[in-house]
Amino acid sequence: MKKTNQLRNVLLCVMLFWVTLLSSQEKEKPSQFYLTVTTMHWNMDLEDFSMKDWIAIEKEFLDKVTKKNEFVLAATTAHHYLTADNREVLYVQLFSSWEAIEKAADRSDELIKEAWPNEVDRDAYFKKRGAYYSDFHSDEIYATFPGGKSSSSEAGDDIFYYVRKSHFAFPDEGSRKEFEALRNAYLKDVVHKNKYLKGYFPYVHAWGSDKRDFVEVFEIESLTDLEKAFEETGRLNKARFADEDKMKAESKKIGKYFTGFHADYVYKAIPELRKIREVSKK
User: Fold this and answer.
1) CA 20 to CA 41: how far, in whole Å?
2) What is the DSSP string of 12-50?
3) How far is CA 256 from CA 167, 248, 252, 253, 269, in A?
4) N or C: which end of the chain has fewer CB within 10 A?
5) In this structure, are residues 83 and 24 in contact, taking their beta carbons and an 8 Å threshold?
6) 3-state secondary structure of 243
7) What is the pLDDT of residues 182-230, one digit of tens each?
8) Is 176 helix (H, G, I), strand (E, B) or coil?
9) Is 33 within 8 Å of 94 (Cβ atoms)?
10) Cα–Cα distance for residue pair 178/255, rounded to 1 Å
11) In this predicted model, what pLDDT tens digit does every residue of 228-257 receive, in sequence order?
């Protein structure tokens, strides 16, 4: 990304309302992290496709480049499980800042040349790797949003990601105080208490196709746990209210901040293709 200033201006314009109006993060903490999502598609014409070989090829890149790239805090590769497109493969990476995304790209170029110093060998590897994918791919960048629940999973664990994408509305009568109060109460008493959710990660659009995007990623261990998580969410939410009328009233209040649209996706992470973020205990 060479057009840093242009992209930063887009970011600031898009995020101005929700970041300044709604964010309640403490000033001494990092204001945001950034998530890049590259959606690739399988090459359906590849006759000798092998999942084992594909994982080995991607793991080589992960070990030689991604894990050694100090600007990439964490990384996950996941594939379609329950989505509209069975060809999808997602490459997800976490960064500490907008500038770190650029630095990571330059650092990856250096590490690639170190890993495959011979140009012939380098071209051969990327040709073999590229054969698994079609030419089409898409990119999105998201910014972290307050209220997440840290992952309790470890390297090697089987992980599913239930992804819910909603669209923000921008009501004139809305206020930061009301939105935070409603959302924080729900997160505290429902999401964070749901034992079937191993992690919860909310993101907002930073750069991509739709500035209204609000993406919530729920980390679970199995599809069975996803069903249980839905049931537990309903139970915990009802427990917050003395009667159903109060629950409906609060739902209506928070609902005005969203258009009513949402889409659901389930992806399965590849355990071998993860870079776990190292969090300082200081």
Assistant:
1) 36
2) HHHHHHHHHHH----TTS-S--EEEEEEEEB-TT-TT--
3) 11, 13, 7, 6, 34
4) C
5) no
6) coil
7) 999 999 999 999 999 999 999 999 998 889 999 999 999 999 999 999 9
8) helix
9) yes
10) 12
11) 999 999 999 999 999 999 999 999 999 999
The contacts of residue 128 (CB under 8 Å, 6+ apart) are 57
Cβ neighbours of residue 241 under 8 Å, at least 6 residues apart? 247, 250
167: left (phi > 0), else alpha (psi -120 to 50), else beta?
beta
Six-digit token string for 10: 């887009």
Nearby residues of 259 by Cβ (< 8 Å), 6 or more positions away: 166, 167, 168, 169, 212
Residue 174 has phi, psi (to 5 degrees) of: -75, 160
Residue pair 90/79 in contact (Cβ under 8 Å)? The answer is: yes
What are residue 172's phi and psi, to 5 degrees?
A: -65, -30
Indicate the burial class of 199 (C-beta count within 10 angstroms; 0-12, 13-18, 19 or more). middle
For residue 191 the two structure tokens come to 């999401």
